[in-house]
Write a structure and sequence with these properties.
By secondary structure, this protein is an all-alpha fold. It contains nine helices and no strands.
């Protein structure tokens, strides 16, 4: 006679718990995906409304209508218009930084990273015009007394990547010796000015043409000066 089958209830219980945990995680992940999608749609609509009407002129009703949602649904995800505005800016900045860093990391040489920075930002601006209108307005208002630490942090984070590329280009002898930190701010602001020009419709050139124009100006400034020595 064969021995009786011994059922390990502890093992079965562990498997049941594991299956329950997996199912719970799957359900939670699905819920989170839906919430993330809904939040993204609301923020995209908010960007458009804020860009057209400004913060003061925009209402949560306007944003809800643009998103095709009830006003109460918007409040489920964002408790106030101010929070909507802040999150729209933060989400856009995260996308801008990611696109810029990806482009710069793919550049083969330090000096090529400068052109990658300019190109990435102009292309991102073309694809996200509503957000860039908000972005330019917010960062254009930065001043020494500005008390928004997060905006200053984002600004500094973006300039830091430029500074690192310029410092490396100096070490490699690709450009003349200079204060990389100051030069990074200049390149950043020149790029920002070109983005504004394009947003206002003052440039009829293609993105590539404007990138070449600005980079040629930058290269001339980074070359060894004939009249002024560093």
């Amino acid at each position: 006679m064969e021995p009786p089958t011994v059922i390990n209830h502890n093992k079965t219980l562990k498997y049941d718990n594991l299956n329950s945990a997996v199912m719970l995680a799957w359900k939670k992940t699905k819920h989170e995906v839906i919430c993330e999608f809904r939040s993204t749609e609301i923020l995209r609509a908010a960007c458009g409304v804020f860009a057209r009407q400004g913060f003061e002129g925009a209402t949560v009703d306007d944003i809800a209508n643009a998103a095709g949602l009830a006003k109460g649904t918007v409040y489920v995800y964002f408790p106030s218009k101010r929070e909507l505005y802040r999150k729209a800016i933060e989400q856009g900045i995260a996308g801008l930084i990611a696109a810029t860093e990806q482009s710069m990391q793919a550049a083969p040489a330090a000096v090529d990273k400068i052109q990658a920075f300019v190109g990435a930002r102009l292309r991102f601006a073309e694809e996200n015009r509503d957000f860039m209108a908000l972005y330019q307005a917010e960062f254009g208002n930065l001043r020494p007394s500005h008390n928004d630490k997060e905006l200053k942090h984002f600004y500094g984070q973006q300039v830091a990547s430029l500074e690192a590329a310029l410092a490396e280009a100096v070490r490699q002898g690709q450009v003349r010796a200079m204060r990389a930190g100051s030069a990074a701010f200049f390149v950043y602001e020149l790029t920002s000015a070109l983005v504004t020009q394009r947003l206002l419709g003052w440039s009829r050139a293609s993105v590539d043409e404007d990138v070449r124009l600005l980079c040629n100006l930058i290269w001339k400034g980074l070359e060894e000066a004939k009249c002024f020595r560093s």
